[in-house]
Amino acid sequence: MPFTRQTARRLGRHLITLGELDRANQQVTWEMETLGFWHRGLENVTVRLVPVSLNCYGWFLSEGDIYVPAVNGAQLSDLMLGRHTRLTDVLRHEWAHALADRRPRLVGTKRFCKVFGGEYDSPDPVREYDSSHHLTSYAATNPCEDFAETFHYYLRHKGRLPLRLQAKTAIARKWDFVASASSGTA
Predict the structure, then answer these.
(1) What's the pLDDT at 145?
(2) CB 120 within 8 A of CB 101
(3) Contact between residue 126 and residue 132 where contact means Cβ atoms under 8 Å apart
(4) What was the pLDDT predicted at 13?
(5) d(CA 171, CA 147)
(6) What DSSP character marks residue 160?
(7) CB under 8 Å to 166, separation ≥6 — which residues?
(8) What are the two backbone dihedrals, phi and then psi, of residue 59, each rounded to the nearest 5 degrees?
């Protein structure tokens, strides 16, 4: 899923408060607006803090809400392994799903299928994880997660494809797809 980095083990870093969630959400929605992704259809998406989840950092449900657990198994695993996943990255990823839900024509195109290797809602992986095709191992899960991971990186890097990724043609095509979504040409 989102980018993780090695970090000192501190329990407080792995527990999410409502204030932290609000600050992170303000940052991510500002990034979306600044980069041209925000539109009225997203205004009714609510980001909710829930008490616990056993296995994921967050999720989006098509009735319109993003859920982020205060405590979850993924964060506890990060704590045990000395890693940390940024809350802003979790939200960037989940907002990508919300964007796809609110703009179904964006992800329902032949171009999307060609670039991401399948239909957005396909439950099947398109290919095994390959760092020249996927930004993360989670992106190899299926096309919708590949899109969400690409979107999350796009926001984090302010729309600029990192130099280390520019020679990776498949990733550059996905990046271009996301960029065209901000301008409305995807």
Answers:
(1) 95
(2) no
(3) no
(4) 54
(5) 11
(6) P
(7) 172
(8) -155, 160
**Verdict on whether the full-model pTM lies above 0.85:** yes
Tokens of 161: 């494809």
| 78 in Cβ contact with 12 (< 8 Å) | no
CA distances from 24 to 16, 31, 103, 163 (A): 11, 11, 23, 26
CB contact at 8 A, 48 and 65:
yes
Distance (Å) of CA 161 to CA 10, 27, 57, 125, 170: 32, 20, 25, 24, 12
Position 183 scores a pLDDT of 61
Distance of alpha carbon 120 from alpha carbon 108, whole angstroms:
7
Q: How far out from the chain centre does Cα 28 lie?
A: 11
Q: What digits encode the pLDDT tens for the residues 134-153?
A: 999 889 999 999 999 999 99
What pLDDT does residue 11 have? 46
Residues making up the chain, counted from first to last = 186
Q: Following DSSP, what letter does each residue of 70-129 receive, concatenated?
A: EEEHHHHHHHHHTEEE-HHHHHHHHHHHHHHHH-HHHHSSHHHHHHHSS-TT--S-SS--
